[in-house]
Specification:
The chain is α/β, with parallel strands linked by helices. 41% of the residues lie in helices and 13% in strands. Strands 1, 2, 3, 4, 5 and 6 form a six-stranded mixed beta sheet that branches. Helix 3 runs antiparallel to helix 8, helix 8 runs parallel beside helix 12 and helix 11 packs across helix 12. The N and C termini lie far apart (55 Å).
Length: 326
């Protein structure tokens, strides 16, 4: 824990907050996050301790990093995050404020921009996965790929009188979506995300499949949106990817009664990819982003899936064998 020694009132509020769902969640996050790795990742870009720096002393990096994580896992704006840090005993304790006031929204905004400009949100995913590997997390030779829409504000009530120029609209079924798409590759055993690619919403799932497969993967599970992936030039023309066994679901209209057991076996494995989406979109609440631009959205989703991996890693791994031939 960082910051000042808490007062007796703070200690009593913390004791009560530990009985709440928020207090329990943040306590689990406190133990799971590899703070040393993340602070070492951000430290070279942060101004803390830089000699000859004019103005007020910088906020400790540990405080800013924890405050940013609070904004991600609760999907808070900079101003809302400042208010939560001041009002909630559980959040104050997690951030390590002691008796100090929380950094203002401008300070958090500048810190977020620092992460975005240097691609540190996406780098957090790699650091978390490296930490999980050191802890002995299960790693298989199979990957599950999928993608999900992340909506973006479609309003033009802004200074440019325009939508986000880097976001696009796409149709799925009878519904139209405007924003971005998160393509992920998930380890088939542990269910944690090892690869993330963020694109505009109109980029097809199958066109990003090759970028989600790890070196050494032997099997890849995918839904019917990836039909024909093995014949694509970026897959068929690659020495490694061409040897991968692509277990792609058939379209519903092509599934006969004899094929149902086989397709059910595929679905039981493929469903693990939905757990990562559930944590980010339902637990963290990141269904719609408030930022404009691919770089900002990629930074947010990189940090979000890194933290989602820490939540998913607490579950028991499940070994996924290939289904019997159809």
């Amino acid at each position: 824990m960082t910051g000042c020694q808490p007062s007796l009132l703070d200690a009593e509020l913390l004791r009560r907050s530990s009985l709440t769902r928020r207090g329990a969640f943040l306590a689990g996050l406190e133990e799971a996050v590899p703070w040393g790795r993340l602070e070492a990742l951000v430290a070279p870009f942060y101004a803390e301790g830089r000699p000859g720096r004019a103005g007020r002393p910088p906020v400790p990096l540990a405080v800013m990093l924890r405050m940013y994580i609070v904004s991600v896992v609760y999907d808070l704006s900079d101003r809302a995050c400042q208010d939560e840090c001041n009002d909630s005993a559980a959040v104050r304790s997690f951030v390590g404020l002691g008796e100090r006031d929380a950094p203002d929204e401008t300070t958090l905004c500048k810190f977020r921009h620092l992460l975005e400009e240097n691609g540190l949100g996406e780098a957090m995913l790699a650091e978390v996965n490296a930490e999980l590997a050191e802890r002995g997390a299960a790693v298989s030779r199979g990957t599950i790929v999928d993608a999900t829409f992340v909506e973006s504000p479609s309003s033009t009530k802004n200074g440019e009188r325009a939508r986000d120029p880097e976001a696009h609209q796409a149709r799925k079924g009878n519904n139209w979506h405007f924003g971005y798409k998160a393509h992920i590759g998930v380890d088939a055993d542990s269910g944690t995300v090892h690869t993330l690619s963020v694109t505009a919403a109109n980029v097809s799932d199958v066109s990003e499949a090759h970028a989600l497969v790890r070196e050494g993967d032997e099997r890849v599970w995918a839904d019917a949106g990836y039909t024909g992936v093995a014949r694509r030039p970026e897959v068929a023309g690659d020495e490694g990817l061409s040897k991968v066994e692509w277990l792609v679901a058939r379209k519903r209209s092509a599934v006969t009664e004899e094929l149902r057991p086989y397709e059910r076996a595929l679905s039981s494995v493929r469903s693990r990819v939905e757990h990562a989406f559930h944590v980010v979109k339902c637990v963290f609440g990141i269904r719609k982003v408030r930022y404009r631009g691919l770089r900002k959205v990629s930074n947010l989703l990189g940090a979000a899936f890194a933290l989602a991996n820490l939540v998913l890693a607490r579950r028991e791994p499940r070994r996924c064998a290939p289904p019997a031939a159809a």
